[in-house]
Structures are given as C-alpha cells and as structure tokens.
Amino acid sequence: MLTALGAGLSVLCAERIVQVLDITLGNRNSFGVVLELLAYWMPHYIGLAAPVALYLGLLFGFNKMSKDSELDAFLAAGVGLGRLTRPVCMISVVLAVNAALMFGWIQPYSLYAYRATVYTLANVDVFYLAEEGVFMQTGKRTFILDKLERRDNSFQRIFMYDDNGKKGSETITALNGRLVDDPANARPVLRLDDGHRMEMKSKDATASTTLLEAPVVGDFKSADVALGELSKEVYRPRGRNERELTLTELYTQLQSEDLSDSRKRKMESQFHIRLALVALVLILPFLALPYAIGSRRGNRAYRFAVALILLVAFHEVLQQGHLITRVSGTSVWWTIWTPFSLFAAFAFWRFYVTCYTLPRPWLEPLMEDIADIVKAAWRKIRPLPAPGSL
Q1: In this structure, which of 28, 267, 280, 350 has its CB flanked by the most CB atoms within 10 Å?
Q2: What is the pLDDT of residues 48-101, one digit of tens each?
Q3: CA 96/CA 113 separation, integer angstroms
Q4: Would you list the domain boundaries of the chain?
C-alpha cells in the first residue's frame, strides 16, 4: 500500500509541477515557491491516492497469499476469509477517517492557500516574472527593464509610466536600479539611481484656457518606487467557491434560506460527493478481496484489470453525477447515492459469494479461451526465422 501510495503521489506531483513551474518561472526564490505550491496540493493528492493505494495493496497482498497457499493453510485451520478481512477493515476505517479530514477540512484550506499564493505571485511579485525588453503591467503602472540580472536583482535602464487618471500622469526613467527588501512594505520596491522624473497634470475641464499646465520635471540621484497595488485584503475571502468550504460550513450554509438556486445546487453536490468518496473507502476491502483470489493454475491478470476498471468507472460515475446535480439540480439521491448503493451492493454480494459459497468461475474459462486464441494467432503471424539461423 505504501509503495502504491508513493508511486501515485509521484505521478500526480509530476503533472502538477509543470503548471507550478510555469507560474513561478523567474521568481528569485522559485524553488521554495514550487515546494510551497506543491505542499498545498498534497492533501488533495493524498485524499485521492490513499484509497487507490489501499485497493492495490489488498489486491496484491491477498493474491500473494492465495498463490503461496497461505489461504489454504488458514482455511484448513478454521480461519475463514471473513475473519482475515477484519484487520483490513480496521485499516479502511482509519483511512476513511483520514479521507474525511482531507476532503472535509484540510483540502478547503489548502486550496484557498494555493489560489492566494498564485494571486500574490501574479499581482504583487510581478518584478520576479519580468523579462528583458518586455512591457509589464502592475496596477496602473507600466514599466520595461533592460539587462536584468537576477543574481543580485539589479537592472539597467528602466522606463516607468504611471497613469493617475484625472490627476494626470507620471513618467520616470533611470540608468540603473535594483530590487530591495523593505520589511515595512509588502510590495516589491525598486531603488532607482540617476533618474529623471516628469509629471504631467491633466487639464481642468472647467478651465477657460485650452493650454496644458507646464510639466513638473526633475532629476534625482536615488529614489524608491513600489510596484503593484496593496489593498487591505491581498486576496478575496475564503468561501466564495464551494470547494473552499469545510463540511461543517457547507452543512451550515445549506440550512440557510438566502441561497440562490445555483449556489445551493453547487454546495449540495459538493457536500454529498465528499461524503460518498469517504464512504467509498469503507467498501474497498469487500470489492478487492474477490478479485485478488483465484485458482492457482488460472490466469489472474484479467482479475486485476477488471478490479481496476470497476473502481475507475465508478469514480467517473460519481463525478458525472456530481456535475449533473451541479448543472441541472437533479437530486443527489439519484445522481450520487443511487449509483453508490448499487456499487456497494455489488461489492458485498461478490464478497459473500467468495467467502461463503463455492462460486463457479464463469469468466476465468472465457479468458483462458481468449488467451489461447491470441497465442494461436500470434504463432501464425510470427515471422519465420531466417535460413541458417537455426
């Protein structure tokens, strides 16, 4: 299970790291930011990978016990499959509690932290994403840098234009400068050296003359300029998106009568899909055990394929039901809990048949016949050895 969990997290993180690198490219502390953004996604990935890892662990573990005749020894000693499943069920309960914490409380906060960090990178740390000879926009200020050195955050020749609306505009040029750390300012601060400043005031609409006021021009040896706009709230409050609400917050808001229909549909589908994913962990042992055990001489590979296809297909059915409720408002009892009940009934039925009856392997002979046909066809189309190679 731990091996499958590690492999699953590696695959999921590899997909996410491409997007994270695209966001943080050029940041002076890009490695730390990449780790931070990946850490925010870990609760989501663990919530997805842990149940699958348990499922694969059960398939491989019980299959090995079956192949090595350990199950035969247990059965001969009077220990049935139902009793062997008890410790596995305890593990599934622990993982279900972990899934409830991940889906219900940790994921909403980590998702909001991820979005807030991305927003900060895109709006506050715009200097770190700047490129040489490219105009950048931050708030009402436009600037372009030349010969940017990221090792010491210095640059040469900068042009800045600040549109102040009705107050006019301000243009600043400087020969060189650098980014400085100012603990008192949350925005990036550029320290400009050997610069020139020109301020143009807009014409008063009530003035009788059409002439503009003379611009205010001046030179400076050194000046600090802050980039971006800083508001009291760096990012919007958490909870405007239903995925950022915890289970308790979703339940509390669903009781409110002030919700619009579309908002209520989204929150209701989000609340029930989380509960269904948590409950799914509890039935995984009963689904995995029947497909892990097979005849010693038979082909077992197809059983693993069928087991994985069932789990993936059911997860897709849940996601589609969640989407249907979100869009059309169909009751979650039809779109989510009816498929879940059918799937759970199928898992318990398969478990009962495997543990307490002598099932007739109707699928195994069919798969063996298909394998024989494939082998015969391969022997016919296989290229003959070259003359003299025998």
Answers
A1: 280
A2: 899 999 999 999 999 889 888 898 899 889 888 889 999 999 999 999 999 999
A3: 24
A4: 2-121+239-377, 128-226
